[in-house]
Write a structure and sequence with these properties.
Acyl_CoA_acyltransferase; six-stranded mixed sheet; GNAT family N-acetyltransferase; GNAT_dom; alpha+beta; Aminopeptidase; about 190 residues
Length: about 190
C-alpha cells in the first residue's frame, strides 16, 4: 500500500467521523479533497517523525509519533495551493485539536501518540485493528516509550479501545462543541 492508498483508506474511514464532519464542510467532493489533503500531510509527517504500520494484506494502517514531537506540527508549505475551503477546514480542525493536545501534553510522559488508525470496512471485526495497536505498542516499547496515548471524538469507538486495554484519562468539550476523549495504555 502506498501513501496515496493509505490516505484514501483513512479518508473513507473518517468521512463520517464527527470531527471530520465538523471541520471539513461543503460538498462531498470538497470534503474529501480537504480530508485527503490532511491525511497526506499527516502521513508525510509520520514518515519523517514517527512510524507507519500496515496491517497484513493492506487491510489497515496505523501511524504514530513519539511524544518528543507531540503535538504534531504540519509544515504550512504543505497547504500551499489548497483552495480556501480546505484552509478554512484545517483552521477549524486545528482549533478543535488544541483541546486534546493540551490534555495529553499535561498528562502524558515518555509516550507514543497514535495519530491515525483505520481498517478497511470489508475486513472489520477480524482483528486487524487490534493487530495494528499491538504492533504500535511493540514498536513504542522497543523505542523505550512507556505509554500509548490517543484522542477520539467518536464515542462509538470507545469500546474498541477499552477492549484493547486503553482507559479514558480525560474528556472535555472542545471549541468545536464536540466532546474529545483522551485515552491511554501503559506499556509496562
Amino acid at each position: 500500500m502506498n501513501l496515496l492508498q493509505c490516505s484514501l483508506l483513512l479518508t473513507s474511514n473518517f468521512s463520517d467521523d464527527p470531527l471530520f464532519r465538523y471541520s471539513f464542510q461543503g460538498t462531498d467532493q470538497q470534503r474529501h479533497r480537504g480530508i485527503e489533503a490532511y491525511f497526506n500531510a499527516a502521513l508525510d509527517y509520520c514518515l519523517t517523525e514517527g512510524e507507519i504500520i500496515l496491517a497484513p494484506g493492506n487491510a489497515g494502517v496505523l501511524a504514530w509519533i513519539p511524544g518528543t514531537v507531540f503535538p504534531p506540527h504540519i509544515d504550512p508549505f504543505k497547504m500551499t495551493g489548497q483552495p480556501a475551503y480546505v484552509l478554512e477546514a484545517w483552521e477549524r480542525f486545528n482549533t478543535h485539536e488544541q483541546t486534546p493536545e493540551a490534555l495529553i501534553s499535561g498528562l502524558a510522559k515518555n509516550f507514543a501518540y497514535i495519530w491515525l488508525l483505520a481498517v478497511d470496512f470489508s475486513v472489520r471485526g477480524r482483528g486487524y485493528g487490534k493487530w495494528l495497536l499491538d504492533s504500535s505498542a511493540e514498536q513504542a516499547r522497543e523505542a523505550g516509550l512507556q505509554e500509548l496515548w490517543l484522542s477520539i471524538e467518536n464515542e462509538k469507538s470507545l469500546g474498541f479501545y477499552e477492549k484493547a486495554g486503553f482507559t479514558v484519562a480525560a474528556s472535555a468539550e472542545a471549541a468545536s462543541g464536540l466532546t474529545t476523549y483522551v485515552l491511554t495504555k501503559s506499556l509496562g
